[in-house]
Amino acid sequence: MRLFRPVGADRDRHDDAVLLRAVARGDQAALATLYDRHAGWLHVRLTRRCGDPEIVREVLQDTFVTVWRSAATYRAGAAGGWLWVIAARRLVDAKRAQARAERVAYEPPAAAPSAEDRVLAGLEYGDVGTALEWISPELREVLRATVVDGLTTREAALLLGVPEGTIKTRAMRARRELRSSTSAPGCTGCSARTAQARPP
Question: Which ranges carry the RNA polymerase sigma-70 region domain (predicted)?
């Protein structure tokens, strides 16, 4: 499994489209090639969003199972973006399932982000990452999808399973909350950077 995609974007895009058409026809070798080309960077990106390696492995596997079943729905465009939307949606589903299972088992007190999470947030997102800790999870998901991951409003709606209008509304609410969170510890300067963020 390669960790990063090879450079050579035009050729890769063409090759990816050819591979996906072959996968749609049931070609397992094409799926294996697609996996070798994309699984590495998908794994890295999923790991940045989820600290549980078991969940990451399951999501990666589910992503390529979905590709196997849905390759015929792929249309022209960057295959990497299409794969990431699938992977990100599988990750959201996995986290929701995990949260439901934990609620059934017990109702733990709300846990503060660990020191490691805070450090990683600072490295990955800077002040924005710190500010994200202070807004509600549903708003945080929208900002991560539209601003951090660079998904369009439509892709974010698909990823999170909510209407596009809800994505836009939550993005506006999130920006308001981020602007008001400048008084939270560690968030000095957040509003200036995030007030300019707009959903695609």
Answer: 34-100
The answer to whether the beta carbons of residues 167 and 153 sit under 8 Å apart is yes
- The CATH fold assigned to 1-108 is Rna Polymerase Sigma Factor; Chain: A (1.10.1740)
pLDDT at 193: 40
Counting every residue written for the chain, the total comes to: 200
What is the DSSP secondary structure assignment for residue 26, as one 8-state letter?
A: T
| Cα first-last separation, the chain | 32
Tokens of 131: 């500010």
CA gap 130, 122 in Å, rounded: 6
Does the predicted model carry a pTM greater than 0.85?
no
> Top-level CATH class of 112-200?
mainly alpha
Task: For the chain, give the percent of residues with pLDDT over 90.
Answer: 30
DSSP one-letter code for 109: P
Distances (CA, A) of 70 to 10, 16, 64, 163: 23, 14, 9, 22
In angstroms, rounded to a whole number, what is the distance separating the alpha carbons of residues 143 and 127? 14
- pLDDT tens digits for range 151-186: 888 888 877 888 999 999 988 888 787 777 644 454
8 A C-beta contact, residue 165 and residue 122 = no
3-state SS assignment for residue 1:
coil
Instruction: Using 70 as the pLDDT threshold, list the residues of the chain that sit under it.
Output: 1-14, 104-133, 181-200
Do the domains 1-108 and 112-200 sit in the same CATH topology, yes or no?
Answer: no
Q: Which helix (H) or strand (E) holds 30?
A: helix 28-49
